[in-house]
């Protein structure tokens, strides 16, 4: 076929090209990233709006407006306020394990559809909230939606994409997260100016827009060939879909790999127990370590609480929301750059560059706040804007490294037989530590003060070293042949050795 790209790996040759059908399907599925990003961005904005705080969190409002004796770092320290932000992530953590069963038993598409519907209900409840209980119940429903979407969408994108374009396609999820955060920041900046103090309702209810797109779009989404093979013994439907998404009739090599992986998958009844076996040890470690490290970069400190952070260093309410818009633009732009280069430079290079960039900027931010911002009073406008620039540098580093790659790498390294379970573990770990960071940050800021940035900077050093020593390069490797990267890695080959057909270990 003219214009066709041959995708070659050690295990054989996959034929195919990037087709409009794949691009359109992945664009619709990646809307799941927009709902996640919108929620991250919107919560930090509305919790900095005085009318919202006055209605639902009057004690915080009083400390912010009236009590000048309280430290700059402690004005927003409220467990009820952080429960509003973090309740979503506990709900998401629980929901992702239900999503694993749905994804494995029924396919990726039903799981995406369930996520969109739950998020839509949560958006409606949040926008109509008259008390804090309705508000938090709405957040729980949003969490169920995000739990299902985050479990299924990265898998869907990785399975639909040709191997040589998998990084760019999957990074589209984080790009959509960035679009969601940016959209939320822009809406918060606009609704904060609405007279009457009800603008926060629009901010919360507008989450229904991306949720509606995802829910309606999911109805028309095609199922992935991997999932069709799992649920269709004849394989004809899967073969036809594979031919359609690859734009060629010559898909036999890839189809045979998918069928072989599916046969192994069908012999496994307890994938969560299976993943504990030694042959899956590298994948299990990555399923836990990568989402953990993604959260202790400190990014959600910026995403959730950017407006509050900017209020802390002395910017006004409107200027704080505008500053959050600026960081949103930077994050989205850098993720787009990552989409363009991840399949050329590889995952490890971007992890290294981003890690160094984040560490340096965090150390300088912490140093400036330690020297210039005391417990009371403000900070000069010059230093405030310098901190804003440094936060943008930090966000850019995250945007082309741990942001998109934290979702890409776990979704592409798991064998089909444990893929759904492993993705659930990765999402659950992500939500667990998102919850912990969200629930503790305002208290941490109160007690650690500027040392908060040194705390997260230290973790960035640890995680950059971890990637350097333990994460193999996975670019251009077909997803069904990914086990080779562990057998060839200097450390993991000692663990996995050579695996026989019955799954038992043989000597390396």
UniProtKB/TrEMBL annotation:
Entry keyword set: Membrane, Sugar transport, Symport, Transmembrane, Transmembrane helix, Transport
Principal subcellular localization: membrane
Membrane topology, as annotated: Multi-pass membrane protein
Pfam families documented for this protein: Sugar_tr (PF00083)
Places the protein is found: Membrane
Domain Major facilitator superfamily (MFS) profile residues, every copy: 25-475
InterPro entries the record matches: MFS_dom (IPR020846), MFS_STP/MST-like_plant (IPR044778), MFS_sugar_transport-like (IPR005828), MFS_trans_sf (IPR036259), STP/PLT_plant (IPR045262), Sugar/inositol_transpt (IPR003663), Sugar_transporter_CS (IPR005829)
GO cellular component: membrane
This protein's name: Hexose carrier protein
Gene Ontology molecular function: monosaccharide transmembrane transporter activity; symporter activity
Entry keyword annotation includes Amino-acid biosynthesis: no
Native source species: Quillaja saponaria (Soap bark tree)
Similarity section: Belongs to the major facilitator superfamily. Sugar transporter (TC 2.A.1.1) family.
Membrane-spanning residues: 21-42, 80-99, 111-130, 199-221, 284-313, 319-342, 349-371, 383-409, 421-441, 453-471
């Amino acid at each position: 076929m003219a214009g066709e790209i041959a995708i070659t790996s050690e295990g054989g040759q996959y034929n195919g090209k990037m087709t409009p059908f794949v691009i359109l399907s992945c664009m619709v599925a990646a809307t799941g990233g927009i709902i996640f990003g919108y929620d991250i961005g919107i919560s930090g904005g509305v919790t900095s709006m005085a009318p919202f705080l006055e209605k639902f969190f009057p004690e915080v409002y009083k400390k912010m407006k009236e009590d000048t004796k309280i430290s700059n770092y402690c004005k927003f320290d409220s467990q009820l306020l952080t429960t509003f932000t973090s309740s979503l992530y506990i709900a998401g953590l629980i929901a992702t394990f239900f999503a694993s069963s749905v994804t494995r038993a029924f396919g990726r598409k039903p799981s995406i559809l369930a996520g969109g519907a739950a998020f839509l209900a949560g958006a409606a409840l949040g926008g109509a909230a008259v008390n804090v209980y309705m508000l938090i119940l709405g957040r729980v429903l949003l969490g169920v939606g995000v739990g299902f979407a985050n479990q299924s969408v990265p898998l869907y994108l990785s399975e639909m994409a040709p191997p040589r374009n998998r990084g760019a396609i999957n990074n589209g999820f984080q790009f959509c997260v960035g679009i969601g955060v940016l959209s939320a920041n822009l809406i918060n900046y606009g609704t904060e100016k609405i007279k009457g103090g009800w603008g926060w309702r629009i901010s919360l209810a507008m989450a229904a827009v991306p949720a509606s797109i995802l829910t309606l779009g999911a109805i028309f989404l095609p199922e992935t060939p991997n999932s069709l093979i799992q649920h269709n013994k004849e394989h004809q439907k899967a073969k036809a879909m594979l031919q359609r998404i690859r734009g060629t009739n010559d898909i036999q090599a890839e189809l045979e790999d998918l069928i072989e992986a599916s046969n192994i998958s069908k012999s496994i009844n307890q994938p969560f127990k299976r993943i504990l076996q030694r042959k899956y040890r590298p994948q299990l470690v990555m399923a836990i370590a990568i989402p953990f490290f993604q959260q202790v970069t400190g990014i959600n400190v910026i995403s959730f609480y950017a407006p509050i952070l900017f209020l802390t260093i002395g910017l006004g309410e409107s200027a704080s929301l505008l500053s959050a818009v600026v960081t949103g633009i930077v994050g989205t732009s850098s993720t787009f750059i990552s989409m363009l280069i991840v399949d050329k430079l590889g995952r490890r290079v971007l992890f290294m560059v981003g890690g160094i960039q984040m560490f340096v900027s965090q150390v300088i931010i912490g140093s400036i706040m330690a020297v210039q911002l005391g417990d009371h009073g403000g900070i000069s406008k010059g230093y405030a804007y310098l901190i804003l620039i440094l936060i943008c540098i930090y966000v850019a580093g995250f945007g082309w490294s741990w942001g998109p790659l934290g979702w890409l790498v776990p979704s592409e390294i798991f064998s089909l037989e444990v893929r759904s379970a492993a993705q659930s573990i990765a999402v659950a770990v992500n939500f667990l530590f998102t919850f912990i960071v969200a629930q503790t940050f305002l208290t941490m800021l109160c007690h650690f003060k500027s040392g908060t940035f040194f705390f997260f900077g230290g973790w960035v050093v640890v995680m950059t070293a971890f990637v350097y020593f333990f994460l193999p390069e996975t670019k251009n490797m077909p997803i069904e042949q990914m086990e080779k990267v562990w057998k060839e890695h200097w450390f993991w080959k000692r663990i996995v050795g050579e695996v026989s057909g019955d799954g038992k270990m043989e000597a390396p």
